[in-house]
Amino acid sequence: MDTLAPMGYIKVTSVRMQGLLLILFAKQVHLPFIRDIQSTYTRTGLFGYWGNKGGVSVRFSFYGHMLCFLNCHLAAHMNYALQRMDEFEYILDTQDFDMYNTPQVFDHKVVFWFGDLNFRIADHGMHFLRSSINNGRFNLLWNRDQLTMMKKKEAILQEFEEGLLCFKPTYKFDRFSETYDTSGKKRKPAWTDRILWRIKPKAIDTEDENSSTTSSADDDEYPIKVTQDMYTCDVSYGVSDHKPVIGTFNLEMRKKETALVTLTVEGHWSADEDATFTYTILENCESSTWDWIGLYKIGFKSASDYSTFAWVKDDEVAANGEQKWLPTAPGVCVHCCVCALWMG
């Protein structure tokens, strides 16, 4: 948060299950267009009772497009490739969202699946592995990567895309070094840490004229596009025996939604007087008892860092375009901005 806030990014939400942590940041300009945020988690460790393995996810509507980010930590060791697939399918089956049009992960327009998926490089001996890595000939290892091999026979994996593995296997290193495991176990290097994505196939889009998130002629004319700009790892990071994997993507999509609210500051604000502003509802929207408007200090780092806020009562959600006055607490701060999150 300290690093990203000066770059204009705000923490929207997070979900954690033991060592699994997923944090969503967004540029401040996008906040009014991020709605219906929900998160959940699934335990798969110790027959589903322990959260050291499993998945955490965050889903939300972004300019009218439903996105889901799923972070997993799957079963370890070379011989458990099939168990990893079983765990992944179990996570997909058990993760439910309270959204009528996207109740499950695969209902979303775009899904990013990533984490310590724990797939290994099969068959090759240690000498061949290290020789190929040291010479930068990663392509010699691709056909024995378990995830690549499983993708040839698992239909569910064939729906996902992944960039080329043109970086060193990220497991297992001696901590605080760039040397692969020198302990007595001498674990074989592997691309355990991965980032994949899936665009919902048109054939399974549901047709519902009442939903702004389903397939339509506009969606066919302006399909969402995902382009991976970078896929690499940072070998200099030494706190873990894994090296962090980094992926950057460009999402091209039509902005199907506009901001629900615009705000106008009234008069000159000072710390010793009540501050007021008006808000205007730009379109008809379903009101909720959770709707609120917050006052933030300039440079705020998280959506929960408001200095003060006011609930938007049902009787204040008036006809389209009507203005309302909303007082804020006096003496909060001088350098502030008002943000209509309206995220439910």
UniProtKB/TrEMBL annotation:
<dbReference type="Pfam" id="PF22669">
    <property type="entry name" value="Exo_endo_phos2"/>
</dbReference>
<protein>
    <submittedName>
        <fullName>Inositol polyphosphate-5-phosphatase K</fullName>
    </submittedName>
</protein>
<dbReference type="GO" id="GO:0016312">
    <property type="term" value="F:inositol bisphosphate phosphatase activity"/>
</dbReference>
<dbReference type="GO" id="GO:0045719">
    <property type="term" value="P:negative regulation of glycogen biosynthetic process"/>
</dbReference>
<dbReference type="GO" id="GO:0001726">
    <property type="term" value="C:ruffle"/>
</dbReference>
<feature type="domain" description="Inositol polyphosphate-related phosphatase">
    <location>
        <begin position="1"/>
        <end position="257"/>
    </location>
</feature>
<dbReference type="Pfam" id="PF17751">
    <property type="entry name" value="SKICH"/>
</dbReference>
<dbReference type="GO" id="GO:0034485">
    <property type="term" value="F:phosphatidylinositol-3,4,5-trisphosphate 5-phosphatase activity"/>
</dbReference>
<dbReference type="GO" id="GO:0005886">
    <property type="term" value="C:plasma membrane"/>
</dbReference>
<comment type="similarity">
    <text>Belongs to the inositol 1,4,5-trisphosphate 5-phosphatase type II family.</text>
</comment>
<dbReference type="InterPro" id="IPR041611">
    <property type="entry name" value="SKICH"/>
</dbReference>
<dbReference type="GO" id="GO:0046627">
    <property type="term" value="P:negative regulation of insulin receptor signaling pathway"/>
</dbReference>
<dbReference type="InterPro" id="IPR000300">
    <property type="entry name" value="IPPc"/>
</dbReference>
<dbReference type="InterPro" id="IPR046985">
    <property type="entry name" value="IP5"/>
</dbReference>
<dbReference type="InterPro" id="IPR036691">
    <property type="entry name" value="Endo/exonu/phosph_ase_sf"/>
</dbReference>
<dbReference type="GO" id="GO:0046856">
    <property type="term" value="P:phosphatidylinositol dephosphorylation"/>
</dbReference>
<dbReference type="GO" id="GO:0004439">
    <property type="term" value="F:phosphatidylinositol-4,5-bisphosphate 5-phosphatase activity"/>
</dbReference>
<dbReference type="GO" id="GO:0051898">
    <property type="term" value="P:negative regulation of phosphatidylinositol 3-kinase/protein kinase B signal transduction"/>
</dbReference>
<dbReference type="GO" id="GO:0005783">
    <property type="term" value="C:endoplasmic reticulum"/>
</dbReference>
